[in-house]
Amino acid sequence: MKVLLVGVGGVGEAIAAIAKPRAWMEQMVLADYNVKRAKEVQKKLGQNKRFPVEFIDASKKSEIVKLAKKYKVDMIMNAVDPIFNEQIFDAAYAAGATYMDMAMTLSTPHAKDPFNKCGVKLGDYQFAKAKDWKKKKLLALVGIGVEPGMADVFARYAADHLFDEIEELGIRDGANIAIEGYEFAPNFSIWTTIEECLNPPVIWENGKWFTTAPFSEPEVFDFPEIGPVEVVNVEHEEVLLMPRWVKTKRATFKYGLGDQFIGVLKTLHMLGLDNKEKINVKGVQVAPRDVVAACLPDPAHLGDKMSGKTCAGTWVKGIKDGKPRQVYLYQVADNKACMDAWGCQAVVAQTAFSAVIAMDLLEHGVWKGVGVLGPEAFPPDPFMEKMEDYGFPYGIKEM
Q: Looking at residue 38, which CATH number applies to its domain?
């Protein structure tokens, strides 16, 4: 398989590192706007011919198509912030390549009633073009990180094997990660974190999607190997993906942010620093959110200062053999173990491994499909069987 990796930040590096030992990965082009960063990752990988570096402006569809054709890639792997998703998605279609991402095209809140009604939903742009992809016999596999991605596979597995009827699918994410030397340092892209945490969260209930206020419906969830963590509603792709393929009465996504993190996000919003549109600052056009991101440490370089674990998974409530049942399917990533194995911190490594497993399954014909599909559209067992081999074993906890 030949892959054009668009974006060589923390998650992009982890994708390349996890793919490196796999013989089926013939070549992975490390393409980034920051060539210095791409070369840094190339040097760590140590195989320049197999992992060539290229400059790319992900906002320009023509550049992406040109690089895809230059290297005759089979797949374009989108590993940048989702503001560029439309261009990369359309470039893959134009180039005749398989497309994968870990976050879908962005949403736009409802103009008049944002905390009750959906506006443009996550992924609407992509699903609107599903017929075109199907007609061209191309596959766009959207939302194949850890959440969305692995968590969606877990939802399909629960429907196939663990339940006769599902009442609720609830993605629950919590961690006890600490970062030494920083009062505030996100362990994932702050650009993406602002986007998903300050947008109105989406909930699926009784056959329709609706929205609620950010950080709503707090609950305490007991995470394996971590313990109780308060989680709140956050906008996330799983809620838009799971009901398309898995029958459930309700679907939610809740994330353990913590009071400090929520306070920082609320302050950024109050000051307008979450704005992703460019404004004029003394003759310079700059997006306030980009300034915030530039002021914070790069999550890709925090691994040696991090300690602790992160847990991602899918809580399922329903009926099995006429009796109520609740289970939590999960994956726990330990930061030290990830640093020792991949040289990448736990949050980005856990996000990356699902994409590489999906590449493996597609390359070997285990997963097949055309159109715009989520992880739930594919058989879950082959994916889960590979998780331990890739260093990310799953667990199932009866609740």
A: 3.40.50.720
- Mean per-residue pLDDT of the chain: 95
Strands 284-286 and 279-281, by their bridges, are: antiparallel
Q: Torsions phi, psi of 158, nearest 5?
A: -60, -40
User: Using an 8 Å Cβ cutoff, are 157 and 291 in contact?
Assistant: no
- Asked if residue 214 is part of any domain, the answer here is yes
CB atoms near residue 115 (< 10 Å): 14
- What number of other Cβ atoms are within 10 A of residue 378's Cβ? 23
Our count of domains for the chain comes to 2
* Residue 193 DSSP SS3: helix
Whether residue 256 sits in one domain with residue 170: yes
pLDDT above 90 coverage of the chain, percent: 88
- Does the global pTM surpass 0.85? yes
Two tokens at 159? 């429907």
Do strands 250-255 and 279-281 pair parallel, antiparallel, or not at all (unpaired)?
A: unpaired
Q: Range of 69's domain?
A: 2-100
With a cut of 80, say whether residue 82 has pLDDT above it.
yes
Note whether 232 and 337 are same-domain residues. yes
Among 100, 123, 141, the domain boundary falls at 100
Q: Residue 155 is part of a domain; what is its CATH number?
A: 3.30.360.10
Greatest Cα-to-Cα distance within the chain, rounded to the nearest angstrom:
67
163 and 254 part of one domain: yes
Q: Which of 72, 100, 128 is at the close of a domain?
A: 100
Write the pLDDT tens digit of every residue in 158-210: 999 999 999 999 999 999 998 888 888 787 778 888 888 889 999 999 999 99
301 and 154, same structural domain? yes
**What was the pLDDT predicted at 303?**
82
The two structure tokens encoding residue 106? 């962005």
Q: Which pair of structure tokens corresponds to residue 21?
A: 């030992």
Which three-class secondary structure state does DSSP give residue 90?
Answer: helix
Instruction: Indicate the residue type of 123.
Output: G
Residue with tokens 């992406």: 64
Q: DSSP labels for 43-88?
A: HHHT-TTTS-EEE--TT-HHHHHHHHHHHT-SEEEE-S-GGGHHHH
| The total number of residues written for the chain in this structure | 399
Is 80 exceeded by the pLDDT of residue 214? yes
Cis status, amide bond into 299, omega within 30 of 0? no
Quote the pLDDT of residue 259: 86
Query: Within this chain, do residues 81 and 177 fall inside the same structural domain, yes or no?
Result: no
